[in-house]
Structures are given as C-alpha cells and as structure tokens.
Amino acid sequence: MNPTKNTADKLFLRRRIIGLELCLLRTQKKMSLSEAANKSGVSKKNIKLIESGKSFSLYQVAILSALYEHELCFELIKTS
Questions:
Q1: For 69, which DSSP code?
Q2: Alpha-helical runs (H) found in 29-54
C-alpha cells in the first residue's frame, strides 16, 4: 500500500472521530451550533466542518474542548 495514501486515510479517520466526539460533547451540553459559535469565537461554519471531520486546527479543537469542559490531549505512538 502507498504510505502516503495510508497516512491520508488514517488522518481522515482520526479527524472524523474527533469531529464526532466534539459533536457529542456539544449536544450533551445541550448547546446549539449558534450558541457554541457565539461562546467560542469559532464560526458556525467552521464548527460544522470540524464536526464533520473535514477541516480544523488544533487551536479550534482546543477552544471547543475547553468550552465543553474537556481538555485536548494527544500522543504520538510508535507503530512498528
């Protein structure tokens, strides 16, 4: 398998998982997209992109995580 394709596939899946987790946290807080946007300073459009796993920065994820009373944490793991 092409290493670049494999990396891109893994990155897409990880972005999707993070987006779904943020969406779940927002809905658990009973917060609308508009409310989350107003409180975080991240636009409603960007929150939709983040929650769909399409595009985000670590800064945006950290801001939303803090708003939802969670902390952004990640680690690098040796694969082989």
A1: T
A2: 33-40, 44-51
Low-confidence ranges of the chain (pLDDT < 50): none
Q: Please report the pLDDT score of residue 1 as a whole number.
A: 53
pLDDT at 56: 85
State the helix-helix crossing angle for 33-40 and 44-51, rounded to 10 degrees. 110
- Residues in CB range of 25: below 8 A, 6 or more apart: 64, 65, 68, 70
In the prediction, which pLDDT does 30 show?
98
For residues 12-45, b (16+ Cβ closer than 10 Å) or e, as one string? Answer: eeebeebbeebbebbeeeebeeeebbeebebeee
